[in-house]
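User
New here, help please:
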Amino acid sequence: MIIRLSKKLLLFISLIFISMLIVLCLPVHDENHYLMVSIDKHDLLSGTPSPRIIIVGGSNTIFNFDSYQIEKEIGLPVINMGLHAGIGLRYELSEIVDQLQNGDIVIIIPEYAQFFRDNLEGGRILIRLISLGPGSIRYISSWRQVLAMLRDMGLETRSKLMSMLGFYDRTEIYRRDEFNSKGDLIGHLESDFTGENLAMQAYEVRSLDDFNAQSIAIINNFVNKANLKGANAFFAFPAIPEANYCANKMNIEQLYTRLESELKSEIILKPQESIFSLSKFYDTLYHLNGDGRQIMTERILQKLNDKYH
């Protein structure tokens, strides 16, 4: 009896798994999908001669910088490789490390969540990225990423089905054609929307009890490889609202202390230097609006000018 039930259960689980694989393997034809801009960013990276400034991180980076202004003031071409925190910090670094050359400057700006639990490995969004552009799989560098994707297969299967059935309407700014030629998202710049209504949005920086030491290991490994190629890598903290910084101050300071002592890259923008009023944000507590973007750009420019001029 038990054996027969076990066989039926195994068959049921296998059918579910196979069904998810079939859905995930269905071709996706959406040339204007937000994640498809990854192709443009890689073309820009491979087609731009060194030395260059390369910005790496999640979606905070695509909202928060004016790469044209940085390029104009520093005198080096800028490539904003940022995309989405959901692809994970490990992937974000892996996809550019082999392209680094002598004189390149890399600015790493991950969201806080990348340092806790297994967020740095990616998951559902990484599955979608590979589904849209199968060539992305070559930047998978760890079995941990594979486990994270397996864990999120159910979520992505549901999301993909909903999208294929037309339940998701992508008429907002999250589209490939809303990026400029430097990799910055610009579709929100004409909006007068401010983030005061984000005051109740949940935001938590976890304690070091949930810290993932792999985050430091992969950054330091990246820095070592960059240095061998003659490139410099710097670290910066992402923009967050002042009230959310204050609410998470103890955990943020503990994280900063640990990173400062263990990272091999210099921290050029500290947590206290990345605080903004809520009115400077757009649609989440990481995404700045046009005014906030200008301020953040000026802050990073000041740091770069101090080092290179």
